[in-house]
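User: Write out your own:

AI:
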Amino acid sequence: MGKYLVVANQTLGGDQLMAEVRRRAAAGPSSFYVIVPTTRLDDGGRLVEVGAAPRGTVPPGPSSPAADEGEHRATLIAQSRLHQALTQLRSEGLEVQGDIGDSEPLTAIEEALAGQRFDEIIISTLPSGISHWLRMDLPQRAERKFKLPVTTITTRH
């Protein structure tokens, strides 16, 4: 049985990712584990990099009300996306579980791998130019660090 770790946030449930998951399932017995990093977004829906504050603002302290509110909002968004994706995948008869993960995607992957063995990591990301994950070279860093094949799914904008 193929075991796949799917890492996505804003692109979770997108057509390209769903097509890739269906291809894996059609190839033979498979199971999927979806991890959704709790990526913070600003009020305009743009990614707030870990440790960064929106332009023109002073970064909140680690335990400030603004930081706590942003983390809470990121957690709620990640939980909602995860729930929708699990419901969608299960409705297609796929064996799938999942969880939300650390805001740093490499850490989220590492934590998922600590508890289970996977054959491949599938990373779904926004297009080049707007993807923070591609700018930070997440797919190649994950492949080097975890010694697993990584497939990168880039959504169409």
